[in-house]
Amino acid sequence: MADFSRPGSLYGAVDLGARKQALEAQARREAAGPQGAASANVVDVTEESFTAEVVERSMSVPVVLDLWSPRAPGSAQLSPVLEKVVGDFGGRAVLAKVNVDASPQVAQALRVQAVPTVLAIFQGQAVTGFQQVLPEQEVRRWLDELMGAVEQFYQANPDARPPAEPGEQEEAPAGPPADPDMVAAEQAIEAGDLDAAERAYQRLLARVPGDEDAKMGLAGVSLIKRTEAADPDDVQRRLQDPADLDAQLLAADFEMLSGQVDEAFARVIGVVKRTSGDDRDKVRKHLLGLFDALPADDPSLVKARRALASALF
Q1: Higher per-residue confidence, 169 vs 101
Q2: pTM of the entire predicted model
Q3: Which value, in Å, is the radius of gyration of the alpha carbons in the chain?
Q4: pLDDT digits (tens, 9 = 90+) for 173-218
Q5: 306: left (phi over 0), alpha (psi -120 to 50) or beta
Q6: CA distances from 104 to 7, 22, 98, 130, 313 (A)
């Protein structure tokens, strides 16, 4: 059963450029090769050390919290993947492991209902997470998106950025100045004004129709606006009626916002297969709008486009 609970967010809105940042980060890792990955910062956390190792540490670095149990087969599958992926960030993220059987109060405080559960803690708050065993590619994408959002937080709040370690140098800014409409859109998102962000993206696309970042941004804003007034529990209930197309589309929207991109695409393509006429056209257009939220070379998008073509023809 799908889970449409909404995890917390650094800005109360989806990171509209995170998927592109994820692909760029993956390319950097592949170029660096196996020698480019640093060892992981991994700590075992108990009820006594939780405040120091997780809450306080998260004020300067994102902490990936692995809530596991030796009784859960999924934990044995997921924990090594988390260690590998977090390790590739060379200390820019920390993996904190909590055995919920030995530290039940931590699980109770975080309202953990199943294991394994993974939460990202930043600035003392749980900002995102998932509750299932994911393959390495999905875990890596999730963490890339988290790190992209953390960097945006520091750009918006430079005083909160921890001081650089000795010997580290900040990268010099490169490239042309940002488009003023793009800046206006990003500022509007941070201020929670989605209508103003939408107008700014539309202005940019009117001038530069092929701007991928603006297209992704506009699609992301539309995604948020469609879901902000929806009740996830009500959507879950409505899914029991296979004829409720709007419920299926909202369910896909929630899955996109929670990072379950492949699940969202599979859901809508499944609806395409069992509809026809105006209903099929409505569902197809909704899916194309979800496609716009990702960069053109995103692997999930490439796979979904092939699946859509197969469903249509």
Answers
A1: 101
A2: 0.50
A3: 20
A4: 445 567 888 888 888 888 888 899 999 999 999 998 888 889 999 9
A5: alpha
A6: 21, 34, 9, 19, 53
